[in-house]
Amino acid sequence: MADAPAPTSAERYVPGSGEAARHVLAVLVNNKPGVLNRVASLVRSRSFNIESLAVGHTERPDISRMTITLRGDEFAVEQMGKQLYRIVDVLKVQDLHESSVVEHELALIKVRASASKRAELLKIVELYKGRVLDISADAAVVEYAGTEQEIDALIALLGGFGIKELVRTGTVALARGSGSIDVESILNAGPVPALPDQPTEDDQQ
How far apart are CA 106 and CA 171, in angstroms? Predict the structure, then answer.
C-alpha cells in the first residue's frame, strides 16, 4: 500500500507580492537645489516607474510639493515612502487614496484646424469645457484641465483632426474634505526620523 502524500504546508505570505495598483503620492520638501533629483532617484532605485511628476511651490515659497503617480504593490510603495524620509529635505510623504482625492492635470493640445472642420473642432472643445488659446489658418491650441481619463478621452476625439503637438503637466492632487497637510506643524515638529525597512525573509533566517 503506497504511503499517503505528506501534507503540504500553507503558502507563506511574501510582502510586496500583491497586485500593482495606481498610487498618488504627495511629497513635501524643502525648496533646495537637487532635492527633486534625489527623490526621483530613490523612487527609481526601488524599481518604480514614475508615470507623472508635478512640482511647485506651496503657500510657502521655501516649501515645494511634489505629486508623484506610480504603480506598485501596497507594501512596496509604503516601504519606499519610508525610505524617502531618509532624504534630509523631505518633510512629509502621504499616499492619497484615489477614492478620496481631487486630482487634475493640464493639457495643451495643438490640433489641425482647417476651415472646413474648424466649427466641428470648436464644438467639441466647448462640449468638454475646454478653451482655445490660439488659432491660425491651419491649427488651434486647445487648453483642457481634467482627470487623466478625461484628458485621454478628449485627445482620442481630437485625434481625428490630427494632433500636431501635445504637452501635459502630470497629475496634481488634494485630499477631499477639511483635512490638510499642515506645513507649519511639520516644521515645528522638527525632522522626521527615518523608519527602518521591513525585514525580509533572508534577514529572518
Answer: 8
